[in-house]
């Protein structure tokens, strides 16, 4: 994959740009002279030109192109705009004030593919309803269909959604390792540090003290995943804090898993009060029970997205450390396949 190009002879400026690129999680090519930039000029996704190299670059007559930025560490330099025009730059960025924008520009240029993935939130209408299993199953089913998927565990008290997949010992970062991230983040950089199984990447919790997720970190992760994934599934806790609210506000669909009994419906009605503050894209998934799905849907005022029958032996499979079985004959497999087909058709 082609990398952003930096053109400068100013070592102090280069040190700043290397630090900014590291913050964006990308590697760059460096040309210390304008003539050295020629092999990279057309193919680099982004060209960052130091003000010190602008005149020499303009004199070399590079062909016009998009994605050129002029960077300076000298505020209010009267010659900077002339240099900007001379090299065909689209903007002038003054450091350090423009560092955040430059991080974003580097991250944007390094994204391999713009995927515009769908975000799906899953939340239990009552404790123990199986929302984490459903979230993990949807993400796993999507990855097996060839979708690049990210499974996000937004519940610090849930024990870690990696356990549902039998991957609690997988090497890689967990939420405490990425909780300080904010601003634009490359999904490629996330994928490199998180546990990944084929097309499925997992951001889970560790076992131990669990501080709340900053909403800025959730925003950064979901924005990166939206650009780099086909499917993002978030396991949302029933207590909706700021980070969970951030996920709900970005969801194309939020599935509320409701056991089909009186207590389950009453509990779900309380959860809905909070959910409706953050999203209107709601659908019910009804667990088989005493009440008919149509009665539950009418009572709660939410359309039914499907019915999930009990799956014999599922608890034993999960306790063995195996991933949920998602064959065509299993209730989970059938529901996930049908829901993903519906989601892809939108």
From TrEMBL:
Residues 7-113 form the Rv3660c-like CheY-like N-terminal domain. It comes from the Bacteria. Signal peptide: none annotated. Gene3D superfamilies: P-loop containing nucleotide triphosphate hydrolases. InterPro entries: Cellulose_synthase_operon_BcsQ (IPR017746), P-loop_NTPase (IPR027417), ParA/MinD_ATPase (IPR050625), Rv3660c (IPR022521), Rv3660c_N (IPR059050). This is Septum site-determining protein Ssd. The gene is ssd.
